[in-house]
Design brief:
single chain, 88 residues, alpha+beta, four-stranded mixed sheet
Length: 88
């Protein structure tokens, strides 16, 4: 899952990298907008106990979460780090 905010500049910067990951690696991320969609925000909050410890004690966007492994990465990151996270 990619939790993101529509106006979030860090999320906007990550979208081309997510698109590249999906195209090159065939990995599909479920993009959940959380700033304007309360259902998605509630879903993100339901993972608070997993997300906050990995994100400096905060709920931030973008947050990338593997729901199978509970592996989390937060913020604007390099493509290689995103790819490494997604292909584990």
């Amino acid at each position: 899952i990619m939790f993101h905010g529509r106006e979030c500049p860090h999320c906007q910067a990550m979208m081309p990298l997510v698109d590249k990951l999906e195209k090159e690696e065939g990995i599909k991320l479920d993009k959940k907008e959380v700033w304007h969609n309360e259902k998605n925000a509630d879903l993100m909050r339901s993972f608070r106990g997993i997300i906050e410890p990995k994100c400096g004690g905060q709920m931030r966007t973008p947050t990338f979460m593997n729901t199978e492994t509970n592996d989390i990465i937060c913020g604007e990151i390099a493509y290689e780090k995103l790819k490494e996270w997604a292909t584990r």
